[in-house]
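Entry 14. Ran structure prediction on the chain below.
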Amino acid sequence: MKHSTNQQTRRGRGPARRIGRTLALVLPVFLVLSGTLAVTRVNWTGSPSDSVLTASDISAARAKARAPQDVLRDKLLAELQEENPGVALTHLQEAVNDRPSLARHCASIARALGRAAVRVYGPTRAQSYARPVCDTSFATGVAASHT
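Output, structure tokens:
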């Protein structure tokens, strides 16, 4: 009698055991996939706007987080066109005095101002604005654009 009871019990475990094995194979895959999807939906930027981060959001964040020297150069180039190169060079010298970390970028900014001055004012008039800001890099930019 006991023998038939054991067989019934084993047969009763058959479907449960198959379901258990299926779950043991499928559940880890499901957990890995859902975890991966959850990580991609986390807002890693720190801004509370949207929890989905797309490639365009990343490029927009990079555009907003521009280097200080790039911001300064763009500002001074706009001043050069609105005012004159002398005003832009004065503001460049003031910016470098206020923020010494910009000193290593001073020469490249002054050269960019020199090249822009040649485009706006021509080589002769642009050269008349030259002054010893950043080791005459403005004059170097004027000369490089003229030749």
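DSSP finds seven helices and no strands in the chain. Will compare against last week's run tomorrow.
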